[in-house]
Each structure stands twice: as C-alpha cells, then as structure tokens.
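hiii so my PI (J.) wants the whole complex modelled not just the main chain, which honestly fair. so below is everything: two entries, each one labled with what it is. i double checked the lines twice but i was tired so who knows lol
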Amino acid sequence: QVQLQESGPGLVKPSQTLSLICTVSGGSISGGNYYWSWIRQPAGKELEWIGRIYTSGRTNYNPSLKSRVTISVDTSKNQFSLKLSSVTAADTAVYFCARENPSHDTTIDSWGQGTLVTVSS
Amino acid sequence: EIVMTQSPATLSVSLGERATLSCRASQSVSSNLAWYQQRPGQGPRLLIYGASTRATGIPARFSGSGSGTEFTLTISSLQSEDFAVYYCQQYINWRTFGGGTKVEIK
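here's the output for the full assembly
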C-alpha cells in the first residue's frame, strides 16, 4: 500500500517561498496513471486543493493560486514537491500531499499525515 | 468556483444510531462528488466517489446518494470509530471541498 510523507520547514517568513517535499513509498511514483497532488487546510477552515502533477510532468493548478505555485516531480527519488512563492499569513496551514487515482474517478485515495507550515516573521 | 456547503456543522449521534449528512453544490456537479472521513491528526480517508460508490475496504454501513446539487452521506449504524469530521468534494471543475460535518457522540 502506498504511503506518502510530507517534509519541509515548519516556519517560513512572509514574502519568502514555502517549499515542501512529498516522499512516496510502497510503490513507484512513475507506476500507474496517478496524479500527485497538494492540498492544504488552514486551522478551522475547509480543505483547499492546490494543484497536481502527472508523472509526465503535466501540471494543473488551482486558478486562485496559479501565479504563485510550482509543483514538480523527481522520479529518481520517488518524490514530488511544492513551491509557493510570496507567502503571507494567509498561507499558514496544514499541507497534505496526496494521490489522485483515475480508477476512483481521480478522487484522492491516499493522503499523507500533513505538515503544519506557519508563515510568520 | 463551485462552492460546496455541508450541513449540519455538527451532528450529535448515539452509538448504533443512523447519521445523515448533507452536501449542496452551488451548481450541478452531476455525480462527480466524493466523501472523506478525517480523524484527528490524520489525513482524510476516501469513503465514497461517484456520489454512491464505496471506495475499497469501506464498510457497507456507509452509503452515498444524490446527483446534481444535492448529496447525502448516510452511516447506517454508528460505530465508535465513525466519530470524525466528514467532507464532501466536487471534482467536475477542479476540486473544491465543503466545510465539513463533525459527527460527535451524543
């Protein structure tokens, strides 16, 4: 069974770039027709889909975040990553990496535990 | 953006009772609707996709119904492990989630 684990700094200064990595274990990130996604959840608020990447490198981003987001994949390390630029306090959230499975209508069938990122000086 | 609205925000239910959770979309999402369960400190778990198809390994006490803009998740007989927060999500137009319904012990 695939497992996902987020890693990265827990504290980022305003105006800087938030960078997170998701390590995939229990299966190859290149195997299967999966999308690899990032979702975030500010405290007490709903989940927000950030974007996703296909193993070919094709990406889709939430239009509201598109100008600041970059998602990339490193198949040699079985990892994918998130970069969010020009962060503000509004970007403080728990960030989840996840897998979208076309066999399940591309719904999210596997999630990481999540990692809290706080934006503060 | 399609806005998803869940009700109620909190549902108090006794063990063994039935729970009915609602989700409304601001425009039609056809059957492109999923339900997730989230326990404290964990990532969400897929329960239902296609509005009514149970995901792999999900017990039969979970069922989903609806299409268009109105959807329901029913838990037929609540078990202790079912007390959690439940989210609906549309995936016809990118992905947006509802605000969640917390199912708590009465």
